[in-house]
Amino acid sequence: MPRLALYALVVCVLAVAAAVVSFVQGTWLGIVWVLLAGVSSNMAWYYHRRAKVTG
């Protein structure tokens, strides 16, 4: 797995954990973390797919 895809995956996991913590604490800031998790998940998929295509 390429390094950028791995970093994006780590950011995605951390954003999901932060969203869960935010929602458990009752703050609506978790929505921002969910959006960040979505973006970083797409980035991880893109970099992983690009590395498979280019070789």
Automatic annotation (TrEMBL):
Keyword Transmembrane helix in annotation: yes
Keyword line: Membrane, Transmembrane, Transmembrane helix
Membrane spanning residue stretches: 28-47
Superkingdom in the source lineage: Bacteria
Name of protein: Secreted protein
Organism of this sequence: Streptomyces lavendulocolor
